[in-house]
Amino acid sequence: MEKSLTAPLSVAIVEDEDGTRAWLAASVVAHPELRLAGEYAAGREALAGLAQHAPDVLLVDLGLQDISGLEIIAFVAARYPDCNILVVSIFGDEEHVLPALEAGARGFLLKGTLTRDITLDIRELSNGGSPLSPIIARQVLKRLRPAADVDVAGAAGGSADAADTLTSREVEILRMIARGFSYAETAELLKISVQTVHTHLKRIYRKLAVHSKTEAVFEADQRKLL
Predict the structure, then answer these.
(1) Alpha helix (H) ranges present in the chain?
(2) For residues 84 and 56, is the Cβ–Cβ distance under 8 A?
């Protein structure tokens, strides 16, 4: 859901911690391509406000004082399917991460690992990416492994060694994604454009027969490319 400079991305924030909410709001306000559409300190307040308008991006905490952030995620995902939902939370365990992603969140960042401008993650999310803290990415991969309880060696051999068709650049990009780098960071480190990163990823998805970067990293790991 990309927008031009004349139509900034609208961002709403649901966060009950005053300091964190103020920091997130200040980051959004300071970015020329973003517009702060609303700040909510409580879950029910957020539900009432979000029922009136749809933001392009929603930043939401899970540990709210009145209701669970999961309820807000489910509400927004059902009502506004084009809204990109990014969880910003202290909870990084499987019991919180997986339900949030299943409810409709498209990214998940841990508060303790926020070491860069949150607006970079917002832009990545709106450009089709899925910002995940490295610890969260490992949680997702760990969860996927039991579901892939198949003869991996046989599957890899039966696909005409599709893994071997990945170029060195594609493998390099996958390794960086697996380490938790965003598309923008990967592009900067490799001295290529973000669009080129997206192009490589699309080719990787096709070659590995997957549909997301998490699946791509998992499949590549199973084929011992990483």
Answers:
(1) 18-30, 43-50, 69-79, 94-103, 118-126, 134-147, 152-158, 168-178, 183-190, 194-208, 213-222
(2) yes
Residue listed under structure tokens 């990214």? 107
What is the three-class DSSP state of 23?
helix
Q: Is 183 part of a structural domain of the chain?
A: yes
Q: What is the DSSP letter of 132?
A: B
Instruction: Tell me the pLDDT tens digit for each residue of 130-161.
Output: 888 877 777 676 666 554 444 444 444 444 44
Q: Quick check: is 143 in a domain?
A: no
- The answer to whether 108 touches 154, Cβ cutoff 8 Å, is no
Cβ proximity of 203 and 170 under 8 Å: yes
Residues 132, 160 within the same domain: no
Q: Are residues 189 and 103 in the same domain?
A: no
Check residue 39 and give its pLDDT.
96
Regarding whether 158 and 132 lie in a shared domain, the answer is: no
> Residue 22 belongs to what domain range?
9-136
Query: Which pLDDT tens digit goes with each residue over 193-224?
Result: 888 888 888 888 888 887 777 777 777 777 77
